[in-house]
Amino acid sequence: MAPPTDPRRPYKRPAISDQQRRRELALQAQSSRRADAQARARALASSLITTQAPPAATHHHEEALEEVDEEEHTVADVAAAASKLRGSDARRWFARQIMLPEWMVDAPPHLARDWHVFARPAGKRCLVVSSNGLTISRVRNGSILHRFPSALPNGSKREISGPASSYSILDCIFHEPDETYYIIDMICWRGYSLYDCTAEFRFFWVNSKLTETSAGDPPSTYHRYRFSAVPIYECTLEGLQAAYSGSTPYVKDGLLFYNKHAHYQAGITPLALAWKDDACSRYVIDTDSKGDVPSEQQLVLELQEDGKLITSDDPPVVFGSLDIEFIQKSNLRPGNLLRFAVRDESVKLVDGKMQISELQFVGKPNRARAFADSHSKALFQYAARHAPLRIEDLVASIQSNSMELESTDVEMQD
C-alpha cells in the first residue's frame, strides 16, 4: 500500500488482523451483559483466600465449577469448587479471573479519544486480596506468591475497619527489584465490586482510594510490601510519549492500552492491548528455553485429548494437531504445553487470522511456563519479525484521528 498523496496526512500501517471487529463485538457484548458483579467479586475473593484443597484433580472439577457458575450457586460453592482444581484445570480457571490483554497487532482508531496508556512494570502479574486481617497474592496459575500483612483495608490485624469479612481485590504486578506491588487495575474495594464499571472509573478509584490508606508507605511491621499506582495517561500524543519515553520507578516491559469504556472482563479481551518494542522492553521477540532468540518463530500450544494443538484464547484457536502414535511414543498427556517452531513459508494470513500449515515439534517449554500463547501473541510475534507495528504507527494513528476531527469541525462550521 502506497502512502497517501496528501503530505499533511500521516501514513497509517494497513490492518493485518480482525482485532477492531472483535473489539466492537466485545463492547456490544458487555453492554448487554447483566452480571451479578457483587456475587462474582465475593466468589473470586473466597477462592483466592482458600488455600486448603485435596491433592487430586481432574477435568471433572473444572466442569463442576462451570456448573456452579451457570446455576448461580452460593459463593461458598464456587470457592469450594475452585479450591479443588489442580494442574492445568487450576491454571485455566485462575487465568480466566484476570483481565488479560490481547497483543496490539493493529493500531485502534480513536486512540486519543477512547484509550488510556501506561508503561507496564516488569514482574509477576497477580491478584491481591485483603480480608480478615490478612493479604494474599496469587499469580495467574493460582499459586500463592505472598501471604502478608498490608495497609490495605482489612489487610492486617491492625487495619481491620468495618465488617471483618469485607475484602478488596487488586490487579497488580509485583516488581521484585523494589519489592512493590504496582496496581494496574481494581476489581473490588471494601466489598464494593467494580466489575461493571468502566476502566476510566476504575483508574480514578485506584488513585483516590489508595491515598485513603497508608498502603503506599514504606514497608513496616504491619505492612510488608508497598503498593503504588502506575501513572496512567490519556492516549494523546503527549500521553503516549510520557508512557513510552518517560522515567518510571520500575523496569518497563512494554505498554498497556485500555479502552476507557471497558468493564473488567475476566480472560483475554481486545479491549486491553499490550505492545512493545526494543526501546521500552528488554524482550520483544520471544526467546527459547536457553534465553536466546531462535532463528524461527516459536509457539507454545496446549495439547488436547484428540491431539489438537490450541491457543489460550476462549474459544481457542486450533493451530494444528499431533497423531496419536507420536503422542504415545513421546509420552505426552492432554493439557501438556508444547513448544513448536514455525517456518515463515508455512504461515498465511487469511481474513485477519494466522494459519500455519506445518508445526515442528521442539519440546516442552520451561516448567515455570503456565499457559499456551494466544492467537494475538502469535500474530504479534510474527509481525515483530517481519513488519512490526512501530511507535511511529501509533503516532500516525493519533495524528490521523486528530485531522479527521479537525475536518469534521470545519465542515460543521461551514
TrEMBL record:
One of its GO terms (cellular component) is cytoplasm. InterPro entries: Snurportin-1 (IPR017336), Snurportin1_C (IPR047857). Keywords: Cytoplasm, Nucleus, RNA-binding, Transport. Residues 97-272 form the Snurportin-1 m3G cap-binding domain. GO terms for molecular function: RNA binding. Residues 1-73 are annotated as: Disordered. It is found in: Cytoplasm; Nucleus. One of its GO terms (biological process) is snRNA import into nucleus. The keyword Cytoplasm applies. Coiled coil: none annotated. Residues 40-57 have a biased composition (Low complexity). CDD domains: Snurportin-1_C. Belongs to the snurportin family. Functions as an U snRNP-specific nuclear import adapter. Involved in the trimethylguanosine (m3G)-cap-dependent nuclear import of U snRNPs. Binds specifically to the terminal m3G-cap U snRNAs. This is Snurportin-1.
